[in-house]
């Protein structure tokens, strides 16, 4: 770019050097603005004449393939010795090339001056600093302009939806960037407008880029336990990895099932960054329980996206807490002693455990509190009734409440005999000794009668 402008300036200087400096009038300077023209441009040219002696100029004419106005200048008159005269003209170019302008000065003597004008058919071009574009992502591309001419008041407009809608520069350089969502693979078009001198230009340029498919957001839900009892709780981890090249915002991850809904949120997830969210799920029915994870997020331009993943947790047809080893014994006073175990067979702890025994109008309860996974609690109640119900109530790790009950009834002859003086071990021992003696006597008698 600078090289071509230097060539144009060199051509102009060489043209001036070729002029004979003999005589009373000399051309000391030819200024062309702009220095290099585009086809159709008009240049403002200022020619400086210097008189070494008093000189009377009758006319100046121009001969060229360019349009020069005026081509003939009359009535300049006398230029005093040591004085200068500036002659303004305009030059219009129609097509590219290097043009010769021959200037004839008629004064006391006739002299010719030749200078050249360069017209290029090379318009400014847009240069992208990034040519790899990701589909369905927000791409930020840096942009600048390369020009062989000295342009001003540059404006670049993308002919597609982007932010900002245009870039501006008053100087000869421009450096900025655009953000846009690449929805389809097609060349990018830009409108570039600028001034070359006082000449306004507007062109449309197409830039080919390399499109790549977005890798999106990786979503991986995993339950710690795939088989549970009803009411048991399993943690579920949701891994989110942003494989995109852009940042995503306002991430909302919602887990839903038949009677379950849990929402987690993230403000931002940078490219290649991973976030792990933890949920707690409890199946409400036996069989297959499907959990759907719905993820929504926005890109930098406010466009919304959604992804969904599903996993299945199987629930056994039983509850996490059970009643086992239930026994009923009748006391000597006619009442019943009810014993048994409350067992947490689930994989998570339970809390607020309460045991109740209900028999008619008689109700007794006991607060157990927390029962860890795999733990049990042995209970014992005495009631005055023939039958009743043992009921256990509890809350799981996510606050859901459950209950389970088992009926009981006194068995016939289920009487436990007790002595206030203790168990008669001595009496039983005496009976056993007498029995052994009797057997020995009988065996001796039999041997004697043989």
UniProtKB/TrEMBL annotation:
The portions of this protein that span the membrane are 423-445
UniProt keyword annotations, A-Z: Membrane, Transmembrane, Transmembrane helix
Provide the protein name. Answer: CARDB domain-containing protein
Q: Which organism is it from?
A: Archaeoglobus sulfaticallidus PM70-1
């Amino acid at each position: 770019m600078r090289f071509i402008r230097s060539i144009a300036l060199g051509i102009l200087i060489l043209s001036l050097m070729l002029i004979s400096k003999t005589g009373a009038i000399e051309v000391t300077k030819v200024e062309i603005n702009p220095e290099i023209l585009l086809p159709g441009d008009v240049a403002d040219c200022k020619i400086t004449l210097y008189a070494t002696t008093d000189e009377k100029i009758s006319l100046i004419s121009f001969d060229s393939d360019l349009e020069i106005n005026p081509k003939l200048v009359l009535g300049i008159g006398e230029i005093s010795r040591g004085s200068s005269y500036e002659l303004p003209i305009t030059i219009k170019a129609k097509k590219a090339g290097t043009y010769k302008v021959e200037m004839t000065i008629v004064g006391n003597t006739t002299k010719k001056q030749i200078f050249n004008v360069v017209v290029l058919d090379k318009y400014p071009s847009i240069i992208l600093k990034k040519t790899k574009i990701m589909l369905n992502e927000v791409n930020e591309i840096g942009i600048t302009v390369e020009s062989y001419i000295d342009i001003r008041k540059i404006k670049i407009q993308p002919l597609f939806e982007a932010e900002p809608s245009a870039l501006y520069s008053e100087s000869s350089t421009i450096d900025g960037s655009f953000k846009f969502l690449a929805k389809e693979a097609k060349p990018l078009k830009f409108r570039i407008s600028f001034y070359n001198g006082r000449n306004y230009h507007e062109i449309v340029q197409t830039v080919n880029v390399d499109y790549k498919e977005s890798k999106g957001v990786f979503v991986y839900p995993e339950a710690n336990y795939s088989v549970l009892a009803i009411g048991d709780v399993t943690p579920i981890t949701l891994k989110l990895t942003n494989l995109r090249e852009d940042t995503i915002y306002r991430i909302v991850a919602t887990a839903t099932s038949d009677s379950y809904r849990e929402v987690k949120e993230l403000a931002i997830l940078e490219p290649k960054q991973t976030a792990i969210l933890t949920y707690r799920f409890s199946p409400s029915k036996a069989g297959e329980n499907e959990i759907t994870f719905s993820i929504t997020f926005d890109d930098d331009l406010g466009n919304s996206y959604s992804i969904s993943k599903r996993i299945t947790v199987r629930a056994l047809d039983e509850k996490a807490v059970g009643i086992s080893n239930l026994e009923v014994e009748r006391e000597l006073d006619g009442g019943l002693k009810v014993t048994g175990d409350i067992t947490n067979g689930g994989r998570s702890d339970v809390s607020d455990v309460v045991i109740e025994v209900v028999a008619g109008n008689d109700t007794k309860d006991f607060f157990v509190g927390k029962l860890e996974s795999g733990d049990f609690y042995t209970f014992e109640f005495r009631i005055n009734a023939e039958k009743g119900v043992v009921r256990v109530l509890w809350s799981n790790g996510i606050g859901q409440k459950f209950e389970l009950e088992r009926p009981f009834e006194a068995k016939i002859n289920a009487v436990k005999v007790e002595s206030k003086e203790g168990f008669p071990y001595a009496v039983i021992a005496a009976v056993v000794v007498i029995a052994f003696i009797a057997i020995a006597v009988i065996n001796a008698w039999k041997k004697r009668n043989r």
